[in-house]
Amino acid sequence: MIQPVNGKFEMPQLPYGMADLAPVLSQESMLFHFGKHLQTYLNNLNALLPGSAFEGKSIEEIVKTSEGGVFNNAGQFLNHALYFLQFKAATMNNVPTGSIAKAIVRDFGSFEKFQEEFQAKGASLFGSGWVWLSADANSKLVITQEGNAQNPITKGLKPLFTFDVWEHAYYIDYRNRRPDYLKAMWSIVNWDEVNNRY
Ligand code: MN
């Protein structure tokens, strides 16, 4: 749960630097996406909270119960916090470990089949949104497409990891080639963090 501090949410503290995800995500891309897009959603959310019914609530509670401008900015703050906190510097042959690795094989057949389905759902999402891996109430893994600021917690799912498919996530590094961005992203996923969420 992400809680406000003295009534305001704060930028996530990342365990890596802005240049550390290159060449998958360049420093320039990170400075815009993390430094400007996320900061703006956060500023907008913090400006909407004082005096509202959402003051002092966790971000998850706000996303589950709000609508309109509060929902859009709260959803985008939560989505981006989970997105940026799930990365590490790129490594060769970066594959899932631990319980999430076993669950992926159980529910998708293999990591390769899971990757194919995840990339296909990310590539085919029309417009802006997110492709998510989540766990249902029985810990079964599911892939969902979520438009705009939506998050799987509004469907009762536990969000585990996500690729942002808004154009701002990939246009600096990949221009219009969303499938190339999705394919490149696997090398920076921190599966230890995904296991912590599962
Ligand atoms: Mn984004």
| Distinct small molecules bound, one entry per kind | manganese (II) ion
CATH superfamily of the largest domain: Iron/manganese superoxide dismutase, C-terminal domain
Q: In CATH's first tier, which class of the largest domain applies?
A: Alpha Beta
Enumerate the strands of the largest sheet in spatial order, edge to edge or round the barrel.
2-1-3
Distance between the termini: 14 Å
State which percent range the strand residues make up: 5-15%
Number of strands: 3
Helix content: 40-55%
Q: Which fold name is given in CATH as the topology of the largest domain?
A: minor pseudopilin epsh fold
Order of helices and strands: HHHHHEEEHHH
Q: Architecture of the largest domain in CATH?
A: 3-Layer(bab) Sandwich
Average residue pLDDT = 98
Shape: globular
So how many helices?
8
As residue ranges, the low-confidence spans are none
Structural class: mainly alpha
Largest sheet data: 3 strands, antiparallel
Describe this structure in words.
The structure is a single chain. With 198 residues, the chain is mostly helical. The chain folds into 2 domains: 27-84, Helix Hairpins (Orthogonal Bundle), CATH 1.10.287.990; 98-197, minor pseudopilin epsh fold, CATH 3.55.40.20. It is 47% helix and 11% strand. It is built from 8 helices and 3 strands. The chain has helices spanning 27-48, 59-65, 68-84, 98-108, 111-124, 167-174, 178-184, 191-197; strands spanning 129-135, 141-147, 158-164. It has a 3-stranded antiparallel β-sheet, with helices on both faces. Strand 1 (129-135) and strand 2 (141-147) form a beta hairpin. The radius of gyration is 16 Å and the shape is globular. The relative contact order is 0.15. The model has no long low-confidence stretch (mean pLDDT 98). The structure holds manganese (II) ion (MN). Manganese (II) ion (MN) binds at residues 33, 37, 80, 164, 166, 168-169.
